[in-house]
Amino acid sequence: MLNQENWYVRTINSANDYMFIIEDLSDSKPLGACGLLYTNWINRSADFSFYIGHQNLYIDNGGLAEDAARTLIQYGFNNLNLNKIWMELYEFDTRKIDFFLDKFGFHKDGMLRENCFEDGRYYNSYIISLLRKEYI
């Protein structure tokens, strides 16, 4: 809990990290969180963070994940004037990889070999990104 509190204080005081709550508009119930982190103002890029934890939705079929992701991407390009939004995804997270590649046109930039240890084995991770010119 202490680590989480320290992360929260550091994030809200950072000029390079933008975190938001994903909520149900009908009752304002929090469903997850998303953000643009580690913003590099020289390269105009940021790391896309995205999680929907309510009822294990993660990436839902009802459009909640798509709406939240689209809103954050638009915020990054239109309000923060970013040129690139990127993220690291683990190879076992095929649902999230397919979601961002298929729905938003992200591209695989590279692979980090055996970059994650999960359930007793190593997995590769992918760096994927979306450029402003590809999104607009």
Describe the structure.
With 136 residues, the protein is an alpha+beta fold. The chain has one domain (2-135): Gcn5-related N-acetyltransferase (GNAT) (Aminopeptidase). 31% of the residues lie in helices and 40% in strands. The chain is built from four helices and six strands. It has a six-stranded mixed sheet. A hairpin with a 4-residue loop joins strand 2 (30-40) and strand 3. It is globular, with a radius of gyration of 15 Å. The mean pLDDT is 90.
The CATH topology is what?
Answer: Aminopeptidase
Q: What is the 3D form?
A: globular
Strands of the widest sheet, in order across it, are: 1-2-3-4-6-5
The biggest sheet amounts to: 6 strands, mixed
Class derived from helix and strand content: alpha+beta
Give the CATH H-level superfamily: Gcn5-related N-acetyltransferase (GNAT)
Q: What number of domains?
A: 1
Spell out the helices and strands N to C: HEEEHEHEEH
CATH architecture: 3-Layer(aba) Sandwich
GO molecular function, one term: acyltransferase activity, transferring groups other than amino-acyl groups
Protein name: N-acetyltransferase domain-containing protein
Organism: Filimonas zeae
Pfam families: Acetyltransf_3
